[in-house]
Amino acid sequence: MENLLLPKVEEKIITLRNQQIILDCDVAELYGVETREINQAVRNNPEKFPEGYVFQLENQEVVSLRSKILTLKNVGRGHHSKYPPKAFTEKGLYMLATILKSPRAVQTTIAIVEAYAKLKELSRVLVEIPQQQDDKEAQRRLLQRSGQLVEDLMSDVLPKQSSDTTLELNLAMLKFRHTVHREKEE
């Protein structure tokens, strides 16, 4: 069974303060609740969210995000909290999962775990590739694995139609090209 939430989770993960995080408004969207409910869960359970699990964005970070990725659209009065958003780290998201218990919360938590696990594995594989310069077979296997991970992370995000999609990563000394042929969905 394919998890339809996985691509949505991957789209929400951003890097801020050298950490991969998801903003409280995006967490709320994924869980199908209002942002205030997410923030209330954090306020009501402070012992579950020690330092490093969740943090509040500084004003310049909010401005930077608005200009770079438009996650926080400036849509007018009443659409945003008067407080800067909170950022949930991977640990904070896992802890939030212990509080939210709806069926959608369970599916969302599974999608979050899967997305972070694939990103971590891809990171490990990409670090290991240059270390295998003398073993071409091991390097080939690692390249294939990284291609599979990229395909897994991107496959449900890309539109399904009859086409070839080429993803090219240029990693300093290593250039990696992976082509995916997708058939049109009926």
How would you spell out the order of helices and strands?
HEEHHEHEHHHEE
Low-confidence stretches: 71-78, 157-163
Cα-based radius of gyration, to the nearest Å: 19 Å
Q: Oligomerization state of this entry?
A: single chain
Q: Assign a percent range to the helix content.
A: 40-55%
Q: Report the average pLDDT across residues.
A: 75
| Count of extended strands | 6
Treating each run of at least 4 consecutive H or I residues as one helix, how many helices? Answer: 7
> What is the count of structural domains?
2
* Spatial ordering of strands, largest sheet: 1-2-4-3
Shape: elongated
Strand content: 15-25%
Largest sheet: 4 strands, antiparallel
How is this structure best described in words?
- The protein is α+β, with helices and mostly antiparallel strands.
- It folds into two domains: 6-119, no CATH class; 121-182, no CATH class.
- It is built from seven helices and six strands, in the order H-E-E-H-H-E-H-E-H-H-H-E-E.
- The strands form two sheets. Strands 1-2-4-3 form a four-stranded antiparallel beta sheet. Strands 5-6 form a two-stranded antiparallel ribbon.
- Helix 5 (90-97) runs antiparallel to helix 6 and helix 6 (103-128) packs antiparallel against helix 7.
- The longest helix has 26 residues, at 103-128.
- The radius of gyration is 19 Å and the shape is elongated.
